[in-house]
Amino acid sequence: MDAVDTHVIVVGAGPVGLMLAGELRLGGAEVIVLETRDAPTTESRASTLHARTMELLDQRGLLDGLGAPPREPMGHFGGVPLSLDLPSPHPGQWKVPQIRTEELLGTWATGLGADLRRGHEVTGLAQHPYHVTVEARGPGGPVRLTARYVVGCDGERSAVRRLAGFEFPGHDAERELIRADVDGVEIPNRRFQRLPGGLAIAARRGDGVTRVMVHEFGRAARERSAEPEFAEIAEAWRNVTGEDITGGTPLWVNAFGDASRHAGRYRDRRVLLAGDAAHQQMPIGGQALNLGLQDAVNLGWKLAATALGRAAPGLLDSYHRERHEVGRRVLGNISAQARLLLGGPEVEALRSVFGELIGYERVRAHLAGMISGLDIRYEADPDAHPLTGARLPYAEPGTAGGLGAALGPLRAGRGVLLVFPGPDAAALAGAARSRAGSVDTVTVPAVPEGGEPAGVPALLVRPDGYVAWAGGDPAGLTAALDRWFRADGADASAGSAGDPAGKAGRPAAAPTTTPPTTPTTRTPQRVDRSAPMGNLTGKTALVTGASRGMGRATAERLAREGALVAVHYSTGADAAAEVVAGIEKDGGRAFAVRAELGVPGDVHELFLALEQGLKERTGSTELNILVNNAGVMGGVKPEDTTPEQFDRLFAVNAKAPFFIIQRALANIPDGGRIVNISSGLTKFANPDEIAYAMSKGAVEMLALHYAKLLGPRNITINSVAPGITRNDNPLFDIPEAVEAMSGLSAFNRVGEPRDVADIIAFLASDDARWITGSFVDATGGTLLG
């Protein structure tokens, strides 16, 4: 399969593109964001976040970053006042300038590892069977990138939509509002004031700037190649209100019309659209931005799972199926509002009747739900539970049935199974274990009387907070999971809709699952102080490549010394489970984590599972000991080594340890221990392993240079270089071969995994506190000559 630069390229770094980038990173996908602008916008176009969007930001732990934005319970429908008060933790509408929303999402996405590249204008796009090629003009000249998928979040004039050939049917603007943010004017606030000559809106902000919007009745929208001049807005304002605002200072001017266009499809093979790239509409009531942000949250987890090979067949196709219908409905209500808002005297009778209808609670609630996004319900089977397809019910604070119980997993962008007390609770939890890499199981205490959702044994909640299944039948739960994620370790080659070869979600050497965790319940488990004391009691450790050989022996030895050990593996879930079971049988503590190293997203994938497993068992994410053991051998003569083989050796053996250490230092406290496994081949020549030896030489440099950096924190870092050590290579089953290899050691035998594990355990202990930056010869004297 073709190598790629990243899993997903997102074009457009507005709020929608940044929201999508963060969602993809939560799902473990590598992301590059291309943005034409050199710097974030200073124009606060949209200023309203609705209740459903606020709930989604809450689910991702982002609300604190907004501070305390003003809340307005009253909205409107086409200028007719409408209360937006509905059951939600965040009812009404919240006034947040788009500048702030974009800043918040940009910090979040890049903090998660999204690669934001400004000053890049996309000029070309081509789809291939297993990847997409994107060409752009960047600050340094032309750029060519490849990805498994590309998403256009680049607005109404989307280059991605145009280059990929998406149809965008609809109509151009017939009428328009022109608006400006003006400093230094003193005019009355107006909320949709209809005057004989037109519509006038004015709202003075806390900083003294007034936003004015005006429409002259009967005036058609103009063909515009640029934004209007302030003089045009001032003239229209005077014509409608009789007031002169020419003495003010315009900070931003803009025009928006009642154009309405909707892409016929949101996905074409490996290219997708979100936000205004998928739908163009008049931004009445702030619905446009909210619609786009909700597109991004729906798409993000599905695309990440597909790109990493974890998605069930057809999951990605559900993005179009679900969000296209939502978009159609929103565009419909906006078109209706535009008629009421911008129509002249001919709509007054209709507005009067509409105002009377809004007085009926069911009508008001229906319209408020539509505008706020709280009424969105995705398609479900006719015989499904009524909660299926709806957003997770929000119980009152302190009750156990609603969002509070699921908030932790949802903030990590994972699915969650809420299991309530009952006779089938164990069976339901067991049914989800095969998806532990993607779905967390939360055992909920007894639901207080009146708490939601009473009478439902279990709820399966998607990462975007919508209920995928509700009921009590484990078989029904299994069927729902089959429509969502592949079982951990399942082969992703079965294919999916639009990708019969099954390769859409499998980037070169990409992982096929997220790391499983055990147990799958979320009850934190504190350190058992009654366990036998050892040198490492109370410590936590990560050993990479711990399902066999030296890694396994190291994990077992550290566990015998009292450490809680994360047993990392790339393939061989059964072998890792066997290591964990053996440690626990001997009274130790361990859990398995899976992540394929040397591929995009490897370190993020590893630490998502590691931190979750540590938090479950210790209540914190502190990591005391890191052993970088995982590696691959070359076994290829130098003249036969290909660039791909060379890159693979360095990606796994050198690059992965570097970035694992970089990431781990946020978890390792002062006094921590890092041990890197090198090789005797850095000092003993073997022409058949030149590239491998080079990669291990790079590993030794980590200890030398990091030791100087980490010394002030009393963190030691050392290199251990094994020699010929028994592993599962069939060569060790040949007595003559073993005898020949034994002759290279001063002890006349080959090394055993425990020989190396004992050295690692020593370096991980407090006894080795005065050793750092060292090269430890663990070859059994092979290097003596």
What share of residues are in beta strands?
15-25%
Low-confidence stretches: 395-402, 492-533
Number of beta-strand segments: 32
Shape: elongated
The fold-level CATH name of the largest domain is FAD/NAD(P)-binding domain
Alpha-carbon Rg, integer: 30 Å
What is the annotated CATH architecture of the largest domain? 3-Layer(bba) Sandwich
**Count the helices. How many?**
19
Instruction: State mean pLDDT (0 to 100 scale).
Output: 86
Please state the structural category.
alpha/beta
The total number of structural domains is 4
- CATH H level, superfamily name of the largest domain: FAD/NAD(P)-binding domain
Helix content: 25-40%
For the report, how would you describe the main beta sheet?
Answer: 8 strands, mixed
Classified by CATH, the class of the largest domain is Alpha Beta
- N-to-C CA distance: 44 Å
What is the strand and helix layout of this fold?
Blueprint: E1 6-11, H1 15-26, E2 31-35, E3 48-50, H2 51-59, E4 71-72, E5 74-77, E6 80-83, E7 93-95, H3 98-111, E8 115-118, E9 121-127, E10 132-138, E11 141-152, H4 159-164, E12 170-171, E13 176-183, E14 190-195, E15 198-204, E16 209-216, H5 230-241, E17 249-257, E18 260-262, E19 267-268, E20 271-273, E21 279-280, H6 287-307, H7 317-342, H8 348-358, H9 361-372, H10 403-411, E22 415-419, H11 425-431, E23 439-443, E24 458-461, E25 467-471, H12 474-482, E26 540-543, H13 549-560, E27 564-569, H14 573-585, E28 589-594, H15 602-618, E29 625-628, H16 643-664, E30 673-677, H17 690-710, E31 716-722, H18 735-742, H19 753-764, E32 775-778
Parallel strand pairs: 1-2, 1-11, 2-8, 11-20, 22-23, 26-27, 26-29, 27-28, 29-30, 30-31, 31-32
Antiparallel strand pairs: 3-7, 4-7, 5-6, 9-10, 10-11, 12-18, 13-16, 13-17, 14-15, 15-16, 18-21, 19-20, 22-24, 24-25
Helix pairs in contact: 1-3, 1-6, 6-7, 11-12, 13-14, 13-19, 16-17
